[in-house]
Amino acid sequence: xxxxxxxxxxxAVTIKDIAxxxxxxxxxxxxxxxDSYEISPETxxxxxxxxxxxxxxxxxxxxxxxxxxxxxIGVIVCEIANSYFSQVxxxxxxxxxxxxxxxxxxQSHESAEKELVNLQxxxxxxxxxxxxxxxxxxxxxxxxxELHDRGMPIVFFDRIVDExxxxxxxxxxxxxxxxxxxxxxxxxxxxxxxxCNTVFLSIGKERLxxxxxxxxxxxxxxxxxxIRYCQHGGMVAAEMExxxxxxxxxxxxxxxxxxxxxxxxxxxxxxxxxxxxxxxxDVGLIGFSNSELTELLSPSLSVVxxxxxxxxxxxxxxxxxxxxxxRPVTDFQTRVLTTEMLIRSSTLMQKxxxxxxxx
Length: 359
Hints:
- The chain is built from 13 helices and 12 strands.
- It has helices at about 15-20, 25-35, 40-55, 60-65, 85-100, 110-125, 140-150, 175-185, 200-215, 235-245, 260-275, 310-325, 350-359, and strands at about 70-75, 100-105, 130, 155, 170, 190-195, 225-230, 255-260, 285-290, 300-305, 335, 340.
- The strands form 2 sheets. The chain has a 6-stranded parallel beta sheet with strand order 2-1-3-4-5-11, with helices on both faces. It has a 6-stranded mixed beta sheet with strand order 7-6-8-9-10-12, with helices on both faces.
- The protein is elongated and about 85 Å long.
């Protein structure tokens, strides 16, 4: 018995194959598939039935060359495994698929170099538009500006680029940070530290501003010694450990920490445990996170949750408007969506804490 071929390449069925099988010209088949008035109903029926039988699908690359549209959207995020970004992607796909667009997802892993490679790959594949959350390493936005100036529809979400005039979708980062810090003050904490993303990110600036404003409004002067920056947003464990070490080498150590990003929140808990510190017995902790696991951790984590799915929906709706607009769009929106604070065991009230210790 002849062994099966191992080097066979997949070949999609083409209009030529249908034409050959039915004894028709390729132009007749093409018109029949497009439901052209020039083709008789009988011929259309024969062509469509045969196309369905052999599972024919139009070649999207050929269509994109003809229509100058690929009906695909490129998305760049730092990490799909991050629950926040996976929820945003679900929101993106729900709107994209409803409107007949495919979604191509790339990860930057917080690398500016990888982000640029992703951008070049996606634009070389003729995507119709881009939805982007920039990496923590990105300081030069020149390539984004060039794409935007050449007419590529771009919508930024979460980590946005102020210099580029386009649609942007963000959570209310200032208020989220303000509410989290105020909650710590209300629990009785006095020396509240913060772990921040890089200062180059919009979310880093906004959340730090919210933290500082909440302290000032509660009569506490922000102390630079209690502010620590993690340039890779918690993706590098050594960076987190160094930040926690620095905070607990201070003469007056913090009694609570506000972690201003998802990876910083879970990374902070891990680093505190590695130092033998208990939450909330030794130090309170609240952070930004969309992970459902934060409720199952011990202790369960108090968090600020972003409307991730909705952010994905809004960003995609705005992008499709840009793509399908018949004239250049000059009126851009920055949509700010509300965060939600979930209070759990990691921010125990100081009064309750002291009773527990005494008892």
